[in-house]
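Researcher: Please translate sequence to structure tokens.
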Amino acid sequence: MKNEQQDQNNEYLFRAILELKDMEECRAFFETLCTRQELRSFAQRILVAKMLDEGCVYSHIVQETGASTATISRVNRSMSMGENGYEAVFDRLKAK
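Model: Translation complete:
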């Protein structure tokens, strides 16, 4: 039952995000929803994923992002075993 409730909560969050109309609304929403540290962590993770997608090595990613090798490994693992969420976004960003 708890997982079902969490799934519903997640779906509500995802639907809310899909309602954002532009960069300013997105920024305001996430700055309201997240702490500064959470937002920094999200931003760091997507940058790490982008750099991994581009073929960068761990040492370069550490130097450029300040991410730990553990964070880089987690992101790398989620990219290779995850839902392809990063790749979908990267493909769309590259197309623009």
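Researcher: Any highlights?
Model: The CA atoms of residues 15 and 76 lie 27 Å apart.
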